[in-house]
Amino acid sequence: MPIHFGTDGWRAVISDTFTFHNLRNVAQAIADAIASGSWENGLEGFQIQNKQTVVVGFDTRFLSDRYAADVARVLAANGFTVYLAQSDAPTPAISYAVRHLGAIAGVMITASHNAPRYNGVKLKSYYGGSATAEQCRRVEVFLNHNEERARGPNLMDFEIARQNGLIQRFNPLPAYGEHLRSLIDFDAIAENPQRIVVDSMYGSGRGVIKGFLQGTGCEVQEIRGEMNPGFGGIHPEPIRKHLGALAGAISTHMGNFGLATDGDADRIGAMDEEGHFIDPHKIMALALKYLVEERGWKGAVVRTVSTTSMIDRLARKYGLTVYETPVGFNYIAEYMLKEDILIGGEESGGMSIRGHIPEGDGILMGLLLVEMVARWRRSLTELVDELLKEAGPSHYKRLDLTLSRPIAKDRMKQNLLASAPDRIGGMKVADIRAVDGIKYLLEDDSWLLIRPSGTEPLLRVYAEGRSVEAMDALIDFGKEIAAKTG
Questions:
Q1: pTM for this one?
Q2: What are the beta bridge partners of residue 458?
């Protein structure tokens, strides 16, 4: 099975395609791509202090620590000095370490929010975010080239590499925590300490939020923080259906609200004191409102095409520009690297703010939620209610519909544009966008997004309506299109 190294890396099933043999070949291709001379092209203003240094981290999945050690061995054998995390760590902590140490790249062994049977490689560039599409393409080129020449990976004994200083163990959390202290007002939190439940979902965010809040007076109870590579049989994704344990903890009064991070802690979800799930749409909108109204921040906002229109309504109120991107945090990162972005985020829970790395960060956003509740001195339920009165109502749903056969994305996009309706569910279609799939915007800011998968016979349908009935009407229209297509 061929290895495809796409944007943000490579993921595969453990012991099927994700093997030590394949991983070493990927690590060699990464080393070759970095050494090729074109790795640094494309961004100005970033000084790489240590062009022979690479940071390697890993999550809590089966064999992740062993996989990371093998990546370090290959990189060391290619002449790189490797800073290897001493234990599992959040992806954003590893990404920040790349910037902090002035390294040329980073490698994170993780399959993020995917099922336990998967593992993967996330590739980071020198600016502390996901590698560019061109950088990932270079890795794939070297993968294929090495395979054609039957060239195996360079490999150095781990202990010899350590003795020669080519592999150095380090703890990424102290520098990362110090950086977050420049972004989060811990004094405001200490003035109004909160009772919080943190659900780490057995991921590599375990213990981090609780540790960073020490000394603030907050009472933090952590659940699912022990090592469990099987993630209790669930996908470690902080969405409603996987957070029954968090709802149970809140119902027994372990805390007044809950925070949840995914398998590598680059995504955030939350739950209020009544056990209602607070999705990333509301978290991002609350954060935008807070950063503008309480901190006085200005700047542009960037969101993916599948993220709530509440962002746009708030931005109009504040006189801020909104950029809409295709799905994927790498597109948000491009704006964060080149423009003055106040906040960027996506519907899956990846978000970042000004002054931070261009990377989704569940730890940062969880702490920012704690700061919001502490400083506004209102419950999370009250804050969400106020948000919906101001920028809502907002009802959101996503469906993944299976088609009978794969479809050509470009052809379907053309068909959707050609057959665009004037009205959906009795509401006039005000605009049609083709940023990523086809998005129908209705006159009341409701919208329907249809995105065909390029690799699977799937049609992804997203809808946001001003009422449940409007949302359902949009979803039903999406189902009709799927039926005609599949």
A1: 0.95
A2: 402
